[in-house]
């Protein structure tokens, strides 16, 4: 981190920021963002009896946990999160059970592998599995932090290919941009596949008061409290909990006065946003027997970029095929737009299932978080050598600005459960400060 005059001034402002007066400690807490972290923070404040104002730029709650019904209620799909990861300690496991959410069975391997439009040979399938086996043994941190790609190179081309598939199709990022140390910290355990995870989140928090379609444009923490500027006017508070994605914060969409302290700016620089992307295709069951199709992987390159798609076929029996992809190829497809993305996914599905599959496609939807200005990516990825960035963002700024979200979760990072736990952590930290 290069210390500039601006960052030094921000650090000085942090040290000199005035303390809260007793009257200000009783003021409301402004919560920015009604994704999983913001909703959890607001709920914790409500249960503690402390006043809060929850604002959300979208016209709905849930953030990147979103069940999209634009292709029809019978073809609903989770455009963002769809798994309750590490279910034994995830707070959403009990919520899903209590609310009788439908849980499906997931398989580890796709039935079909297609390479450049042709069925893979048995030798290619075996080599692919062997590459993942080799990679597993190599993903053990040793010495200085390095990228997953650097760790995989020791194992040869098979392990490198497996590393690329792992990071693109689970994190949405290229393997050279992913910290091995951070990846190794992620919690493991049983994953529960939820039919409508986004809908579950929205339903569970439906009773929280929230100001929708209220975009935050600035946060001023130079005074004794905070002032949050929105496109509907300013909001004053004793403190603010900011839960918007780090891609939005790093991009400067919210003006911060007097600026981020040097440590916070450095931590934001240590995280990037993956480009995990989904393309949903609605299918006509009269033209395609969805009961006979299984999940498939289609490997190909476009314009020198990997564009491997993992197709989930008819999840929960719904008439849809959902293509999953990530990395730079996904970024390019998002930037090309929805029509191009649907055309690409349709072509690839037809290469797997035949021409009848093309005729069965009756509509499509791109869940392109990378080009969504309110997300700027799927979830936060720690860069190689920057595994400490997540925890650094947890440190309050002048005891009045608190960051929260999936990016700060360390072992629980990149999940709805992690965002929920971190929103609760941030609310508890705010309440401790205001009570002191």
UniProtKB/TrEMBL annotation:
**Signal peptide (UniProt feature, chain positions):** 1-22
Q: Which GO terms describe its molecular function?
A: tryptophan 2-monooxygenase activity
EC? 1.13.12.3
Q: Which UniProt keywords apply?
A: Auxin biosynthesis, Signal
According to UniProt, the name of this protein is Tryptophan 2-monooxygenase
- Domain Amine oxidase per the UniProt entry, residue ranges: 190-431
A single GO BP annotation from the record?
A: auxin biosynthetic process
- Which InterPro entries did the record assign? Amino_oxidase (IPR002937), FAD/NAD-bd_sf (IPR036188), Flavin_monoamine_oxidase (IPR050281), TAT_signal (IPR006311)
Class in the EC hierarchy, top level? oxidoreductase
Family recorded in the similarity comment? Belongs to the tryptophan 2-monooxygenase family.
What lineage does the source organism belong to?
Bacteria, Pseudomonadati, Pseudomonadota, Alphaproteobacteria, Hyphomicrobiales
* PANTHER family referenced in this protein's UniProt entry, alphabetically: FLAVIN MONOAMINE OXIDASE (PTHR10742), LYSINE-SPECIFIC HISTONE DEMETHYLASE 2 (PTHR10742:SF410)
Which reaction(s) does its UniProt entry say it catalyses? L-tryptophan + O2 = indole-3-acetamide + CO2 + H2O
**In which pathway is this protein known to take part?**
Plant hormone metabolism; auxin biosynthesis
């Amino acid at each position: 981190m290069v210390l500039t005059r601006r960052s030094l001034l921000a650090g000085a402002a942090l040290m000199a920021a005035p303390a809260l007066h007793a009257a200000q400690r009783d003021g409301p807490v402004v919560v920015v963002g009604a994704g999983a972290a913001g909703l959890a923070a607001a709920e914790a404040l409500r249960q503690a009896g402390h006043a809060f104002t929850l604002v959300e730029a979208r016209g709905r709650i849930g953030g990147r946990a979103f069940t999209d019904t634009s292709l029809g209620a019978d073809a609903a799909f989770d455009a963002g999160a769809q798994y309750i990861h590490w279910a034994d300690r995830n707070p959403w496991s009990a919520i899903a059970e209590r609310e009788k959410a439908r849980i499906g069975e997931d398989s580890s391997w796709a039935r079909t592998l297609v390479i450049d439009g042709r069925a893979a040979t048995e030798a290619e399938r075996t080599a692919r599995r062997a590459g993942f086996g080799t990679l597993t043994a190599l993903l053990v941190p040793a010495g200085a932090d390095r990228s997953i790609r650097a760790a995989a190179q020791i194992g040869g081309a098979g392990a490198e290919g497996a590393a690329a598939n792992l990071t693109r199709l689970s994190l949405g990022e290229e393997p050279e941009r992913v910290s091995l140390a951070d990846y190794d910290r992620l919690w493991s355990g049983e994953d529960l596949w939820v039919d409508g995870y986004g809908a579950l989140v929205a339903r569970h928090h439906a009773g929280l008061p929230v100001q929708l379609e209220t975009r935050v444009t600035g946060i001023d923490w130079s005074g004794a409290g905070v002032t949050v500027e929105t496109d509907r006017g300013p909001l004053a508070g004793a403190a603010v909990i900011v839960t918007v994605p780090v891609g939005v914060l790093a991009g400067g969409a919210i003006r911060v006065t007097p600026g981020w302290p040097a440590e916070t700016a450095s931590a934001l620089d240590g995280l990037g946003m993956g480009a995990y992307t989904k393309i949903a295709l609605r299918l006509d069951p009269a033209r395609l027997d969805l009961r006979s199709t299984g999940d498939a992987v289609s490997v190909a390159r476009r314009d020198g970029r990997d564009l491997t798609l993992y197709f989930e076929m008819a999840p929960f029996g719904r008439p849809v095929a959902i293509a999953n992809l990530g990395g730079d190829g996904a970024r390019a497809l998002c930037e090309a737009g929805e029509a191009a993305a649907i055309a690409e996914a349709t072509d690839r599905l037809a290469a797997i299932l035949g021409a009848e599959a093309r005729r069965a496609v009756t509509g499509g939807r791109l869940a392109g978080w990378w080009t969504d200005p309110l997300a700027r990516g799927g979830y936060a990825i720690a860069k190689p050598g920057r595994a400490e960035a997540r925890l650094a963002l947890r440190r309050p700024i002048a005891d009045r600005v608190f960051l929260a979200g999936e990016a700060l979760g360390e072992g629980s990072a990149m999940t709805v459960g992690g965002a929920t736990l971190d929103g609760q952590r941030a609310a508890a930290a705010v309440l401790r400060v205001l009570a002191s």
